[in-house]
Amino acid sequence: MKKVLLMMLVMLPTMLFTACSSDDDDNTSELQAAIIGKWRITQIEKSDGTMLDVTTTVAESVFKPTYAIFYSDGDYEGYGYFGNGSGTYKVSGNKIYTYVDGDEYLVYTVSSYTSTTANLTISMSGSSSTINAVVEKQ
Fold first, then answer.
1. Distance of alpha carbon 85 from alpha carbon 106, whole angstroms
2. Fewer CB within a 10 Å sphere, N or C end of the chain?
């Protein structure tokens, strides 16, 4: 009986680690499916922590209408405040990495999302500054 119990205790960790999939893998594939489509930045966080609606005529004179389009084949297009261009993207955990001409361009860190909105922190490669934003699916 002791041998059987000891054998079960030795095998238990192996069974647990091989039977469970990674939560990151599940989150990545879920986010990968959810982002397909055209998204527009609708709000950005101001220095006082409040959100500014950037879809008004006045705001658009400073913050150009900004869109990101994610295709199911891994292609990406972006227009607006961060420039205009196209390339590819990959999803890892809660981050979306975009590449233009093979170089990392923008990284979107997704803090929460639904099928129509998402809260993001956007960073540009080579820069330490970030923008917190709300985006809406178009």
1. 12
2. N
- The model scores a pTM over 0.85: no
Query: Distance between CA atoms of 53 and 63, rounded to whole angstroms?
Result: 10
Long-range contacts from 90-99, C-beta under 8 angstroms, 24+ separation: 91/28, 91/31, 91/32, 91/35, 92/24, 92/28, 93/24, 93/27, 93/28, 94/27, 94/31, 96/31, 96/35, 96/70, 98/68
With residue 53 as reference, give the H or E element that holds it.
strand 51-53
Nearest 10 degrees: Cα torsion 56, 111, 73, 82: 40
**pLDDT of amino acid 27:** 66
| All domains in the chain, ordered by first residue | 22-137 (2.40.128.540)
| Residue given tokens 């499916």 in the structure block | 33
CA-nearest of 108, 110, 105 to 127 is 105
Measured CA to CA, the distance from residue 46 to residue 51 in angstroms comes to 6
Residue pair 101/6 in contact by the 8 Å Cβ criterion = no
Q: Mark the ranges of the chain whose per-residue pLDDT is less than 50.
A: 1-24
